[in-house]
């Protein structure tokens, strides 16, 4: 299990399904990087200079939107995740 | 529905109508990026180091002006939006 | 009407009159960008981390001087304006 | 013994085992840098501007995940370690 | 009249007199930019985050020294001035 | 004697002994820069914005480890030293 | 007289004497820039955001060491000086 530190969240990013035409997979050269995903783990919040923890706003199972250049890609247990600071999340998708 | 986080606002940006001459659409190579739009969602405000939320000034339905290089373009439900930090908004257009 | 946000001011910038010699307009290749203008709108002031607003010093109708590389050019209602943070204003011209 | 200073942790990074096929070691040109390791030492925490120490969250023997470009590689007593600021750790792996 | 804003001062910079030999003006290719001048106007001081003004140290008529790459050159009423933040002044010349 | 200012320490860095084979000195083209040394002097600590001094953690005679690109090389009295901010020290070597 | 502002000090830097062999001055192509000098004037200290002055540690006549790329070279009354922020001084040489 991954437990994010500080103000980080771990997001599970699913590739958009590949489009098929009559069973033939269409290779997409310009396939966009996903910009939404589901929060699978959230850190306790950032620790400020006084040692206090400022809790996060997002929580596990929130669907979130982010810029395609944000965060760090990590692999764990055969799946790919994105680790982001909460401040790099743009919006919650409801 | 998109719920922006922190001090972000989501702006609906409409392309200027294409100019037509006698029904013929004029292709504009130098088409300017729009710099005004309507706020469709506003975040609760930034959380400061003490954990307090500083509310935003703009609200939903405000028409706002911004620099053409500001913000992040996102697509949601078939429409295009711009996500900006409130501090990157220049003015409210009344 | 444009209502600037935060610590911004909107300045109306008039091009210097073109110089003419005996009625002939002299094309100036090295035409300087204007560096003075009149404040047509001023924001309420910056909001600090505690949520307090720090009021601006300049006010509407002040003539102000600024660096030619400062601010953002915007168009509104057929006129051109410059939007600047108050801290980028150099001086009030009296 | 290495005693990290401030908010630093020292991580022991083991190369992934080389894959072998029928006893033949497969040379991997694209061998990834490791991005997980075990904390072997943790600093007391950062000293803030008032002279107070803000303790760390991670502790010795935690398995941690980090970006492959984070930290400083050091050698000590024949082994290789990575020295990182705690804020550069992404997650604890449990 | 120019009234500098915040922590700015306006300095009147006189070119060093050109050297002449027997009445012939010597062209100086490597003519140095002046690095001293007289303060002709001083702002009220910077406004801090609490809205308080921190007064300046230098005052009108002080001769000051500055780095030749500091400040913004402005023209006003036919004369050239340099506008600098007080923190970019190196020393008072007495 | 060198008395470091603020949060600086002065470290005496000894080159690793050159390896010899049968008395022949082996020129090492890829000779690594040293990354450990002994603290020979430590400053009183950084002065914060209130004028208070925050004391250092390391002390004279500590063996310390640092990144090979940290600090400033200085010569004094025929010997070479490295001057570093304490925050650029990675660990104490015991 | 030069009176440095804020947290600046003015240092008199003497070129190392040129080496001569039998009266012949040896041109040194790789002549090092001096990195020590004597403090000839010290500012009152930096003014913090509350308007308080934080006094300096070094005083006139201290011999100080600095990085060869620090500070601003100025000429005054026929002599060359270096103006530095106190935080750019490495050590006092006793």
From TrEMBL, chains A, B, C, D, E, F, G:
One of its GO terms (cellular component) is cytoplasm. One of its GO terms (molecular function) is unfolded protein binding. Pfam families: Cpn10. It is found in: Cytoplasm. Keywords: Chaperone, Cytoplasm. InterPro entries: Chaperonin_GroES (IPR020818), Chaperonin_GroES_sf (IPR037124), Chaprnonin_Cpn10_CS (IPR018369), GroES-like_sf (IPR011032). PROSITE patterns: CHAPERONINS_CPN10. It comes from the Bacteria. The keyword Secreted does not apply. Together with the chaperonin GroEL, plays an essential role in assisting protein folding. The GroEL-GroES system forms a nano-cage that allows encapsulation of the non-native substrate proteins and provides a physical environment optimized to promote and accelerate protein folding. GroES binds to the apical surface of the GroEL ring, thereby capping the opening of the GroEL channel. NCBIfam families: PRK00364.2-2 (NF001531), PRK00364.2-4 (NF001533), PRK00364.2-5 (NF001534). Heptamer of 7 subunits arranged in a ring. Interacts with the chaperonin GroEL. Belongs to the GroES chaperonin family. This is Co-chaperonin GroES. It comes from Loigolactobacillus backii. The gene is groES.
